[in-house]
Amino acid sequence: MAESMVKLENITKQFGELHAVDNISLTIKQGEFLTLLGPSGCGKTTTLRMIAGFENPTSGNIWINQALVNEIAPYHREVNTVFQHYSLFPHMTVFNNVAFGLKMKKVKKAEMMERVYNVLDLVQLKEYENRKPNQLSGGQQQRIAIARAIINNPQVLLLDEPLGALDLKLRKQMQLELKHLQQSLGITFIYVTHDQEEALTMSDRIVVMNKGKIEQVDVPRVIYEMPKTLFVSSFIGDTNILKGMVHKKSNDELTLQLGAEMITVKKEPTIEVDDHVLLSIRPENIYFIKETESHDIKIPVKVIECIYTGSSTKVVTQLSDGQKIVIQSTNDAIVTKNTAAFLTWKKELTVVYKANEKEETF
Ligand SMILES: Nc1ncnc2c1ncn2[C@@H]1O[C@H](COP(=O)(O)OP(=O)(O)OP(=O)(O)O)[C@@H](O)[C@H]1O
């Protein structure tokens, strides 16, 4: 996976005054499943459309397979795109929809038949070859759209929210199918979604975008466990954001005041004594402990609410200064509403940000 398949260098796209994509640089490796993730309007689709050639960058360079493609028309780029709306030809059978690209290229009949049946087999729709798109379910139509996109053996497949129109169960099933397909074909996938769970499930690496800029690029585990910015922390998964203040700084630790308590966390180079900070702690990383237990972090709280959610219980607690901490507990027997309790979490799972860093609601 070492070779670079797509390279974006200082890419900006302006629509009038708006910087839809704002000076991003990114290298996507051969065979990689890379996901562009971010809220609506952050520039994901615009980035994908520039790689496809449907939009021209205002400035910057795009390489595909080591070739500069800025001036190359979409149909001459080694990429294919799958959209959320399948854009199948309604009057053609499944077979003809998939064969269309090969017919345009005047591929010989025997080879065309072999290739169409191969991809129909890959997407498990061989027996549907004579149906029209309106005789297929949404998931089947999307598989046909994917079959059509891979039949020309593109180096790169661009997928713009391809599962967005499907219901949750089918979407989850198709996520796994797509991932397996990508692995077996060895094609580079650049995938756009605003669904963080989908991104975490499918990707080799995730690019988190916000307002046209890249906030973080990394493997799913690092994005989830070590979000670099407050934005990433809040956008990916559920988290508690708590206000604190730095009391002491030693060689490798910070001592923070949180409510009436002092806790120690890992040192952050840019954070100094007296700084106001925001702590991000995921609900599933917090545990209830008994008053008699001793832990590095031990926070007294009041239990405000217990909400049963099936596999776990969401427990809302409150610190002495009124800040709320939500815990996702699989052992709710330990607490009851309106009682005092004690919380702990691992200091290495506490992510600390300077409070003035992008304090906004997401
Ligand atoms: N052709 C255009 N003309 C003017 N503004 C545009 C155009 N295309 C996109 N934009 C704007 O650029 C910004 C980024 O849009 P883009 O479609 O890339 O976002 P996105 O992250 O894909 O969002 P979504 O998840 O809603 O599809 C938005 O503010 C959008 O309104």
From TrEMBL:
Lineage top rank: taxon: Bacteria
GO molecular-function terms, A-Z: ABC-type putrescine transporter activity; ATP binding; ATP hydrolysis activity
Record-stated family: Belongs to the ABC transporter superfamily. Spermidine/putrescine importer (TC 3.A.1.11.1) family.
EC number: 7.6.2.11
Protein name: Spermidine/putrescine import ATP-binding protein PotA
CDD domains tied to this protein: ABC_PotA_N
Top EC category: translocase
Function: Part of the ABC transporter complex PotABCD involved in spermidine/putrescine import. Responsible for energy coupling to the transport system.
Oligomeric and partner information: The complex is composed of two ATP-binding proteins (PotA), two transmembrane proteins (PotB and PotC) and a solute-binding protein (PotD).
Catalyzed chemical reaction(s): ATP + H2O + polyamine-[polyamine-binding protein]Side 1 = ADP + phosphate + polyamineSide 2 + [polyamine-binding protein]Side 1
Any one Gene Ontology cellular component term annotated for this protein: ATP-binding cassette (ABC) transporter complex
Record-annotated ABC transporter domain positions: 6-236
Keywords: ATP-binding, Cell membrane, Membrane, Nucleotide-binding, Translocase, Transport
Taxonomy of the source species: Bacteria, Bacillati, Bacillota, Bacilli, Bacillales
